[in-house]
# Entry
Amino acid sequence: MIIHTPAIVLKSFPYGDTSIIARCFSEYQGKVSLIVKGARSRKSPKSAQFQPLSYVDIIYYNKPNRELQVLSKVNFRESWPKILDNLRSITLSVALLEITEKTLLDEDPHPGLFKALVATLRAFNESKADPNILFWFYECALLTHLGFQPNLDNREFPGLTLNDPNSGPNSGLILASLLAEDIENLPTDEVTPTDRKIIGDYLWTSLRYHFDGLSKIKSMEVAKKILAD
# Structure
């Protein structure tokens, strides 16, 4: 079967002498792993097209039960160069890609979450809002679309009691607004240092509780320091 879908490149690494393997979050097929033949040859543009954060259209041959699918064609769909010019934005964006890669199952489509990721990265590029707000917006979207939407009135889980999300001056209002998943109407409430700590801890603890392996995400250690500033 031939698949044609928009996709965000989550990560890529060399394969063989001239190829790469790219792990992508596609709108219609979910997370897929592609072998991109000849991508590292001198004349091929595909190495640049499959850098993390690339937003591309891909066409590939899909064979069920095969771990690696073979890429046929790729084109840039949209570019976000300004993300790379801002250390805070690039650090948080890369952390979101790693979280996405770790939480999604292969070939498990979540088109709503895909659109939320595209909207978040586009907003980072346009400096549309405080980077912290954008990061938390996507964490909320990820929890919601994968079946674990936070309930701000329920802090009790087997083996875990979450911190009170309403204990900061504006933390509860900010979280409630983010959970509405409307990137055109992000919260404008003041984010105090206390709010930053409460929101950051609440969402990250929720993610680690529901998804194994997130504690191994290296970029998150840097991201947590940025989120606390």
Observations:
- Residues 2-78 form a domain with the OB fold (Dihydrolipoamide Acetyltransferase, E2P) fold (CATH 2.40.50.140).
